[in-house]
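haha ok so turns out i had the wrong file open the whole time. this is the CORRECT one, sorry everyone. sequence first:
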Amino acid sequence: METVADGLIGAIGNTPLIRLKRASAATGCEILGKAEFCSPGGSVKDRAGLAIIRDAEARGVLKPGGTIVEGTAGNTGIGITLVANALGYKSVIVMPETQSREKIDTLRMIGADLRLVPAKPFKDPGNYVHVSRRLAEELGAVWANQFDNLANREGHRTTTGPEIWAQTAGRVDAFTCACGTGGTLAGVSLALKARKPEVRIVLADPEGSGLYGWVKSGDLTVTGSSITEGIGQSRVPENLNGVTIDDALKIADPEALEQVYDLMIHEGISVGGSAGINVAAAIRVAREMGPGHTIVTMLCDSGARYQSKLFNPEFLRSKNLPAPPWM
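then structure:
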């Protein structure tokens, strides 16, 4: 071994960049996926959890033995809980009860104080984000506030973006990514644009989100729906403000699932729905740009975290969506 990671914290980041063979062959481009499922907590949100906790420490608001509260679709909660465990903090996680059973079970397994709440839109006081803010106030705890806490995007500006630049030796022409908090897209945009202003930053958006319309025309109107978790917004998180986004693409669930299943059965790469959206967007961008370009995207987490949905034919049929052809 060339290096030994210093505990869990030292193992977060520096994930592999994987060439997606079929997507690359189909487009004549190099389509590369950042394998965030290789992070200790199994997702890109380990980076956000670490960045937010380190920022709270630096600002002096998170004291030894303290508590951090977050509202999350699951993965950030897992990242925060694991980092908190490693650094001696407590974590309280508020999550919509509609999220996958696998995420709920994982959070309980790793010791989070998990509070499940009914799924409500952001404008409703019962929305999980608002509940987490009030709970943090009641407990006298730190509220992570991943959507509007710029430590989130700063973590990606200083790690994810530079990693992509180094791994491609600066030969990156475009980056595609879906947004929940906006931290990944924003941080990577800031890092790559500072090094190569002409790199194209493309937001990949599911149905049921307003960010596609916001990028294209300033219109946050929401239409449709998606089974993907943790991405899509009806508002603009603070992480996205002041960040250059060159274009947006809307990706429907069937197109995303096609990539999820294709990667699994032909390349042995297990990813969740947001990665399916990201890869589908990367393929579209590659075809628009033409052969010879390098497009990087995020493989945010593993399909194992969504087995009860993405790989459940009964659930998929209930949503009129295609099931994995081998199931």
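The two ends are 39 Å apart (CA to CA).
again sry for the mixup
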